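Run: sequence + zinc ion -> complex structure.
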Amino acid sequence: MENFISKSLELVIFGNSPAWTMRLLSIIPEEKLLPAAQSVLFGITTRYAYHHSRFYRQLFDQYNVNVKKIRKPEDLGAIFTTGEDLRKTPVEDFVCSKPITAYQTTGTTSPLPKRIFFSDSEVRKYGKTGATGLWKMGIRPEDRVASAFDYSFWISGPTLKASLNWLGAFHIEAGKIDPKDFYDQIKPYQCNVFVGDPSWLLRLSEVAEKRGAWPVKMILAGGENMTEKTRAYIESVWKTDVLLTYGQTEGYGNLGVECRQKDGYHVNDFMFKFEIINPDQDGYGEIVYTTFSRNCMPLIRYRSGDVAKFVKGHCSCGFGTTKISKLRGRVDEMIACGMGNISPWMFEQILKPLALASEDWQIGVVRPGNKDVLEFRIELDDPKGRGEQVEKSILRILEQDFPDYWKSYTMGLFEIQFRFFDRGRLRTGRKLKHLVDERTELIRNGKPTISAAGV
Ligand SMILES: [Zn+2]
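>> structure
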């Protein structure tokens, strides 16, 4: 019965094309359709997980949950699923039915990967919702798409492929090759849409700025958060819009897409129930989501680790699904130190006006003596010539834009120091952690060892 309801909803909502879904949503406003559908799907998901997953059966039994009564996230009280649960629990305890594929992600906190398994029907369904998102962004079947996503255990490429297959648009997969090679080889395919991660797209645009860009319809970026400075640069080179997608491996890379307003993501309400937990006074908190209609490895109230807020009011683009802001950072990147509670977004704001060599930078909190020291690690093209000027600019912006932190600085609660690197020196892995707490390591080693390694 539950399977029948789930399949019927899929058939009604997705029909046989993204155009059908968009027409349906223009007749039945999402505000009316979604709450009822989400309540049914949340109940179905919880019951299914309880009956098929050892992890959830044990978890719900431990909290005496009566799964027959669950309709919404709040009914589960303080029960969540965390990244640590995925790392430490045998994946067999999560998997409920035969998988067809799996992907993994290391994130920024641990070298241990999280492995997520998917069934054939899930890949198909995510293709349908992904295609609807691409349609919403403006991609049509007559467009030609070139993707440069890294395929090694990573989900972004397969997600895009499943979505474009359903949309019916021609696509070519270059893989994450050198942007110079991509530039040389892609022209004959006459692609008018490029897709890649932000740092790769930035390098491609640097190549195109020197050697010449050609007309493209749009550029889609996924995989990392992109600063507005990088977006503006890429848009100026290609003279088109750059739109971002929001995805995590745990959600088949398919959580939300930007519209032309470029001020947040319309999330995928058909496949997920979103919550923001522990919000601050401005509404920013951790994004938590529950996966709907997943028969292989459903996740109940999964703590994403990403910090954002719900955007209130109806978006002027006309799309009525839930909207969340651009990500402000990672929960696990927040650090309490002599400066106060600090997050990477603050330093992004401080460094944004400066002409740095790259978007790669890192703030290390170290403690060589008794006092916390914030070490700015920055890539500069001419460290000897420009270092001093950059140091002065950073202190001036800190004083102007963050008066409370500046006060702590003038009171001597923490110190600031600077280290400059040549371009490309800071990043050693796929992700570079922007804010790192190295005080524990310092205490353990008894000497100040400074690591600029990405994770
Ligand atoms: Zn919108």
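>> summary
The longest strand covers residues 372-379. The two ends are 45 Å apart (CA to CA).
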